[in-house]
Amino acid sequence: MSARDALFDGEPDWLAHTLAFHDRPASPVSLTLADGARIERLDTGILELIPVNSDGERLIVSAGVHGNETAPIEVVNGLLNELLDGEWMLGKRTLLILGNPASMVKGDRFVEFNMNRLFSGAHAKTPYVGTPEADRAARLEAVCHEFADNAGSLVHYDLHTAIRPSHREKFALYPFVEGRAVPQRQCDFLLEADVPTLLLQHKSGTTFSSFSSSHLGAESFTIELGKVRPFGQNDLSRFTGIETALRRLFKGEPTPKPDRTKELAVFEVVHEILNTGDSFQFHVPDDVANFTAYEPGTVIWEDDETIYRVGDSPEAIIFPNRNVPVGQRVGLLVREKQQ
């Protein structure tokens, strides 16, 4: 058996191995590349890439936290295949994660619970504790803590695709950390990756990127890259931006000179909509696209005590979902930030 076969237990590549081992851990295995770089298999769907020479920055790239969001999984798996085939040399220490293998096999967003609400310790709370997503979130937190130890700096890109359409197909979310601003080089990376919209989140949360921001000090982003499709049905030509930008990072190459004719559209949250209980009424259609704008005065939601109307300028809806428990988020209203 070749070293590559050993890395994947005879499966053709990392994705195939992750799917085959979705219901059990994979024992640690190490592969040394021709130039001396190493690939360490830490567990099912978790690889650490260790170059011979690297700057002090470390990179986490995750995909498949929702199992039906397959295009980013295929992009990352393809880049790893390029590295294994010797098409380029590794230049940055990197942790690659396929987040939820069990839901990837199932072809659904999750098995029991939305794993992207179970980080920052939420996995240890009732009713999540002991479920597949909770156990996986706890494992990913532990691996990321170990990877971040003694890092000069840390960057995390958590890659997703969306269930619903969007007037802005590709956009990133920047988790809230008190007193923090987005570095210019991260704005340049998003434009390089063909992600022209950034949403600044207004409070800390329990997503994977919020965990790495708040607990590991990472510059983290959740990046939405298009529409959900089954494995093998993605038009990967629509993902060349993120593929090119990640390949450059993996190789340890500097950021290219940014195209200043392009500007990043930055949005901020103006209102968080919560399910307030039995009298809550949400006046946004179930099939509305992300970034649909509503004119001033439009009633968005109401209950027995409150009627929320759009303010003096238009507000756009993000992630609307009326089918959430009382107290949880139904959606966000956002507005483009004036530069």
UniProtKB/TrEMBL annotation:
Keywords: Arginine metabolism, Hydrolase, Metal-binding, Zinc. Residues 263-337 form the AstE/AspA barrel-sandwich hybrid domain. Its cofactor is Zn(2+). It comes from the Bacteria. Its EC number is 3.5.1.96. One of its GO terms (molecular function) is zinc ion binding. Transforms N(2)-succinylglutamate into succinate and glutamate. NCBIfam families: arg_catab_astE, PRK05324.1. This is Succinylglutamate desuccinylase. The lineage of its organism: Bacteria, Pseudomonadati, Pseudomonadota, Gammaproteobacteria, Pseudomonadales.
